[in-house]
Amino acid sequence: MKSNTYDLIIGGAGIVGLSHALAAVKKGWKVAVIERTPKPMGASVRNFGFYWLIGQQHGEHLDLAVRSREVWLEMIQEAKIWARKRGSLFLANSKTEADVLEEFHTLTQNQPYDTTLLNRDELGKYIPSLSSSTIETGLLSSTEIQVSPFQAIFQLIEYLKFKGVDIFFSEPILHVETGKVITSARTLTTNKVLLSTGSDIYSLFPEEIKKQNTTLCTLQMMKLKVHDKTKLPKLPIATGTSLTHYSSFEICPSMSKLKEQINANSPLLNEWGINLMIGTTPSKDVILGDSHEYGSEKFKNNNEINEFLLQEMKEVVDLGEFKVQETWNGTYLKTIGNTYFHSEVEENVHLVNGLGGNGMTLSFGLAEKHINKWMGISERPEAALI
User: May I ask the CATH class of domain 88-142+214-335?
Assistant: First the structure.
């Protein structure tokens, strides 16, 4: 029988909320997660499923990501989450992109990025069908992890249930105050409340959200069914637009030149916020994306963006015959100028949100940081990669 009294009640069953539930239950807390929809439907299941250590800049981003990687590896084993742990590839399709990759490799030797520069022949071991003859250089990063966005969250939920976390679906939270949460179905008492409801956060404490420097971002992605499976890339692929999308690459002297070239030669890449990435699912389909349109949630796919993504993909890899099996939008809240925002709106009522596209990469580390702080435990020393 489920309880009415908890140490922690979490609003939102996305990766941020579930990560806090995991960190808390590990400490012996009695935890409940409340989700307004029948199942997770937000950005946590509408993404690539990529953990991207290499995209995180030095400082808090990187420290949280390093710890998150350790927890992902634990969960992959304990919760039986499908994963590829072989890393990722960044491809250079121009001399300037190659310069950025080479600079990054040199400048991050003392950082926890494990990178190797590859020539075209070496890239062929991972990508059977490179399209462009201008791709001569790539950067292999061994630290990235890919999970299935369509499976991982649900596998994590089942693991948390097994560990004793109560999870209530189809229950909107109607009211929150210190020590109390009222849903559409019940009234619960608690020591702490954490609200991490993604882009739906405006329904509770709207005035507090207005104070935060945030924006909505809508992305577009698609799934492709490829006829010849031998053409599938063996690692997730990121391209030159990813170099401008991830802040970690800003340390590279050639980055300003790359941005100038993209503005001059491919303005649509910036207009639609294209971050071209290619991954393979457990069922050997291809996930392709994505775009980033800021300011409001868009409920319909832009077919021009989809066609543009497909054309950009063909310039990188030749997948042969394929069929667009599915397209979708995802929406998340991004904090401008910061990793995320954390606000205590009432005593022991916390809002944690605005991680942007970094939820899969940062959430486990961020959750442990918060739970340890609330328990009065000093922050753990910086973790080493395993």
Answer: alpha beta
